[in-house]
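Section: Multi-chain targets

For targets with more than one molecule, the full set of components is provided together so that the structure can be written out for the assembly as a whole rather than chain by chain. Components appear in the order listed by the source. The example entry contains two components.
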Amino acid sequence: MPAILPGETDIYAVTDARLSLGRPLAFVAETLLNAGVRILQYREKNLKAGKMLEECRLLRGLTRESGACFIVNDHIDIALLAEADGVHIGQEDLPVAEARRLVGPKMLIGLSTHDPGQARAAKAAGADYIGVGPIFATQTKEDAVAPVGCGYLDWVARNMDMPFVAIGGIKEHNIAEVARRGARCCALVSELVGARDIAAKVAAVRAAMRQAL
Amino acid sequence: MPAILPGETDIYAVTDARLSLGRPLAFVAETLLNAGVRILQYREKNLKAGKMLEECRLLRGLTRESGACFIVNDHIDIALLAEADGVHIGQEDLPVAEARRLVGPKMLIGLSTHDPGQARAAKAAGADYIGVGPIFATQTKEDAVAPVGCGYLDWVARNMDMPFVAIGGIKEHNIAEVARRGARCCALVSELVGARDIAAKVAAVRAAMRQAL
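Its structure, encoded as tokens over all components, is:
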């Protein structure tokens, strides 16, 4: 099981075909991985399950080759069939304890959280890591909740003894602030898959993050 | 494992909250089951998985009490957690062989089919029954394919040695024709859950179906 959070700082790339400037998923994923991304989440909405499984198997192959961690958003059945390292779910998806019954003890379960109560509940329910956000406003998720700003991130960094991933509107220009507040892992969607030069953007984002520490 | 198709004729009720005239799912399901429905499928779109699991557990309880067969549409993870008798999938969902890996040998797998090639492939892949349709035009499914009319139903009745369920636009006024063409099991959505008097509609539909044979 690859660690979701290596000791060093890292970025967590999330796919979104609608933001990828028409480039094929295989190209986007390979470019991210070749640029050194170690955690890749497949998050696609409005696709049928058959197509999602195909795409996840493609990403599973690529992440396995490069030794990266592969997470599937929402779809536990597809995560299982694609032999993903983890599944990421939201507050209104299946409860963590139910998801655990399906995925067994080894698959990582990540849960999006938006306030301290949800963070504590996630840990108690056995989540392996939590998403913390949205840090900033984002247009990427249609059903995104209002940004919780950096206050919640500060609280998590000080109070939660578990891996967490900051997410929501994180870009090259603001990732330093997020890192300084204690986030060792930052998830980015449009900033990476929507970049004209994905490899250059990965390098710039990582540099900005590391410089902040 | 309840038989999906008892020897006698039967109707297969499918839920749809949007068509249920604002009545709660528990009321609709109990009324259907008390009226003698022996096969109930949960099919709700646009709900989050957590809510779906709750509703499926409710229906699992009710169907177990009444000895009815309970099928979940699309969501294999929820079908597993709710201990449904079966899962019903479409051509663009996970392939039957992949679904079987998740649900094991006992859970029924139903597959929607629209032409002879799909019917033969469903049987070869190990589907337990096939949906045959849409027989007539229907507004119930947003992504419904064009009606295949009674021609495909005739072909299935003559050529396929496996359980099948006719579906798509079947109403009290046309179910006799479907039954005469060889359908022993007919699925109805809006005609049942959208009826002002659900119990009376179930009785009328069954009478029309039986009279045709």
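Chain B touches chain A at residues 48-51, 53, 74-78, 80-81, 89-95, 98-99, 101-102 (CB under 8 Å).
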